[in-house]
Amino acid sequence: MQDTEVTISRFQRSVAIALAAVQHGFEEEHPEPRTGYSLDLALPSSRLAVEVDGPSHFLLPDGRGVRKPNGHTLLKRRLLAAAGWRVISVPFYEWDGLRSASARQTYLERVAVLPKIEESEAKAAADGAAGGSAVESAAVRGLGLALGGAGSRAGGPSSPTRGDAPPYPFLWVSAFS
């Protein structure tokens, strides 16, 4: 793998600062050796990746104003999920709508921290009760988050900012669902 110089955007820096206020242990630009990608923010112990997705990660809005991830972004998410990472996207158009530090921290608690904790608790309960089968926690479903498996379609209600959930295995997150 080649060493390349990484420039961290102001957007990524602001997400990192807000995330550090709600959960410690995230690393910036964490290298993922199996895929060759650098994760914007990662909690390696939990295999949780937070991708800070600026405008270059999306196609132009469609006729309904919905922005969909571009091919490069979809490929990265799919490969990271296949490598065992739970990928959370923080899209610029949602982040820009959060004006205060407390609003940003609340957003990150909802999409990154609480689902991780409650999913771990649900998985531990399922492992004990069902002999190791993974389940999606009620808290994750209640927040409008969905886990998609290989060949499945992530569910949840549509919203004007999110559109239809994409058909690839990663955690689609929207605080506005």
UniProtKB/TrEMBL annotation:
Q: Note the Pfam families from the entry.
A: RAP (PF08373)
Q: Where is each RAP domain found?
A: 48-110
The cross-references to PROSITE patterns, in alphabetical order and at most eight, read: RAP (PS51286)
Q: Name one GO biological process term.
A: DNA repair
Record's SMART domains?
RAP (SM00952)
What is the name of this protein?
A: RAP domain-containing protein
Q: Which organism is it from?
A: Emiliania huxleyi (strain CCMP1516)
